[in-house]
Amino acid sequence: MAMEAKVLESLLKEERAFPPPPHFVEKALVKDRSLYEEARADREAFWARQAENIHWFRRWDKVLDDSKAPFYQWFVGGKLNVSYNCIDRHLSTWRRTKAAIIWEGEPGDDRVLTYQDLYREVTKCANMLKELGIKRGDRVTIYLPMIPELPIAMLACARIGAPHSVVFGGFSAEALRDRINDCQAKLVITADGGWRRGNIVPLKKNCDEALAQCPSVEKVVVVRRTGQDVNMTAGRDYWWHELMAKAPIGCPPEEMDAEDMLFILYTSGTTGKPKGVVHTSGGYLVGVSTTHRLIFDIKDDDIYWCTADIGWVTGHSYIVYGPLANGCTTVMYEGSPDWPERDRFWAIVEKYGVTILYTAPTAIRAFMKWGTQWPARRDLSSLRLLGTVGEPINPEAWMWYYKYIGGERCPIVDTWWQTETGMILISPLPGVTTLKPGSATVPFPGVEAAVVNSSGEEVPLGSGGYLVIKSPWPAMLRTIYGDPDRYVQQYWSKFDGMYFTGDGARWDEDGYFWIVGRVDDVINVSGHRLGTMEIESALVDHPAVAEAAVIGKAHEIKGQAISAFVTLKEGIAGTPQLAEELKAHVAKKIGAIARPDDIFFTAELPKTRSGKIMRRLLRDIAEGRVLGDTTTLADPSVVSQIKQQYESQEA
Ligand code: PRX
Question: Is the pTM of this model over 0.90?
Answer without folding.
Answer: yes
